[in-house]
Amino acid sequence: AQTVTQSQPEMSVQEAETVTLSCTYDTSESDYYLFWYKQPPSRQMILVIRQEAYKQQNATENRFSVNFQKAAKSFSLKISDSQLGDAAMYFCAYHPVPGGSQGNLIFGKGTKLSVKP
Amino acid sequence: GAGVSQTPSNKVTEKGKYVELRCDPISGHTALYWYRQSLGQGPEFLIYFQGTGAADDSGLPNDRFFAVRPEGSVSTLKIQRTERGDSAVYLCASSLCVPCYNEQFFGPGTRLTVL
To answer: Are A109 and A10 in contact (CB under 8 A)?
Structure first.
C-alpha cells in the first residue's frame, strides 16, 4: 500500500524568508501524481501545486515550487518570500495510478507552518 | 461559481445516535469523495462516487457508515449508532472525472462531535 510521510510536524519561517517542507512517499508504481494542499483554520483544503511523476521538470506556481526526486521518492515544497497568509497546515498527497476504480488521494499527516512578522 | 458546500458546519450528537452529513458538489462534477480527518491527522479516504454509484467504498471503517448519491449530485454520509471515536472533521470533495488526475475541490467540512 502507498504511504506518505511528512517528518516535520511544525515549521516556522520569518516573513519574506524561504522555507522548505519535506515529504517522502512509498509506492511501487511508476506513474502517479503528487500534490501539496494548504489547509487554513477555515478547514478548506486548497490546492497549492501538482507534479506529474513522468515529468522531470519541477512544478512551480508563483512563490511555490517543488523539488521532485523520483528515485528517492521525495517531494518537498519550497515557499519563497513567505507571507503571513501562508500560515496554515500543509499536506502532501499522492494520487494512485488511474485504473480500475482507484481515484482517492493519500495524505500525509501534515506540517503546521507558522509565519513570523 | 459556487464551490463545494457541506452542511451542517458542526454537529454535536450523543453516543448511539444516528447522523447524516450532506455534501453539495460543484455543478457538473461527476466524481465525489468523502474523507475523514481526525485531530492532528491528514484526511483519510472513506468512499467515492462516480455518478450515482459508489466506485470504491473500501475506506468505510465498518457497516455503521453508509453513503448515497441518488441523483448523481448531492451526497449524504450516514452514520448509525455513533461512537466517540467517530468524532472528526468529515470532508467532501468533487472533481470533474475519475479516474483522472484533475484537482479535487474540497468543501469546508463538517465537524462531528460525539459526546
So the answer is: no
Question: Taking the CA of residue A43 as centre, how many other CA atoms within 13 Å lie in the half-sphere pointing to its CB?
Answer: 24
Cα–Cα distance for residue pair B105/B107, rounded to 1 Å: 7
DSSP state of A15: T
Look at residues A106, A113, A103, A116 and name the one whose alpha carbon lies nearest to residue A39: A113
Question: Min CA distance, B74 vs chain A (Å)?
Answer: 19
Tell me which residue of A48, A113, A44, A43 sits closest to A84, measured CA to CA: A113
Identify the closest residue of chain A to B111 by CA–CA distance. A43
- Residues A51-72 have pLDDT tens digits of 988 888 999 999 999 999 999 9
Q: Would you place residue B71 in the very low, low, confident or very high pLDDT band (cuts 50, 70, 90)?
A: very high
Q: How far is A38 from chain B (nearest CA, A)?
A: 11
Cis peptide before B99 (omega within 30 of 0): yes
